């Protein structure tokens, strides 16, 4: 896969903390190669306190054309963009940056689009469902906005940080005033769509993001965690016969969108 590397190879970074769980480097590099683009995606493990300095320095690399951003840097990354898409501006967060022809940096947020596409591929249409979202960080913000755009009947948001949760609720209410958006808890009873946008389930022994025993049959479930392939939330949903989208499915659905943006096919 890397036999094409040479001095003309365009460089793309993916930055996060942790980073070992991400699948983007190989998947995006393969996509670029399949499209005839000489590029490589390289992972970088950077802590929050070092993120701004790292990005400022990385932008000086003249063969660096883009940066993919994962937890916990999506809000911080927005301030490194000269231009933001409409949804990135709404959320104040991005998960991908691209160097434009004029040298400026454009930012986009594609987590929500990938999540909804993965749900639909699993046989779960969001429209008309009552949704409970766990996590109001960068990915959660994007997923909440995309679920509202997809036509959910109501959205409740649960987060361990009440201030962050309430800020997202206010932002989404302003953009979708006709749809009920409120604070929620960890009890999924009464909801027909559950979305985990936190790292819960990534490590053995993690407490589940929701009360798994309260998931009703037929509830649509999506989880952003890519490793393990089936988190305890996904496993519990499948055991009840629920359609469930994994973090890997979300990445696969989002990968083509990321490649389009990084290679310049999609403009903010």
Automatic annotation (TrEMBL):
Signal peptide: none annotated. Pathway: Metabolic intermediate biosynthesis; chorismate biosynthesis; chorismate from D-erythrose 4-phosphate and phosphoenolpyruvate: step 4/7. The keyword Amino-acid biosynthesis applies. InterPro entries: Aminoacid_DH-like_N_sf, NAD(P)-bd_dom_sf, Shikimate_DH-bd_N, Shikimate_DH_fam. Gene3D superfamilies: Leucine Dehydrogenase, chain A, domain 1 (3.40.50.10860), NAD(P)-binding Rossmann-like Domain (3.40.50.720). Keywords: Amino-acid biosynthesis, Aromatic amino acid biosynthesis, Oxidoreductase. Residues 14-97 form the Shikimate dehydrogenase substrate binding N-terminal domain. This is Shikimate dehydrogenase.
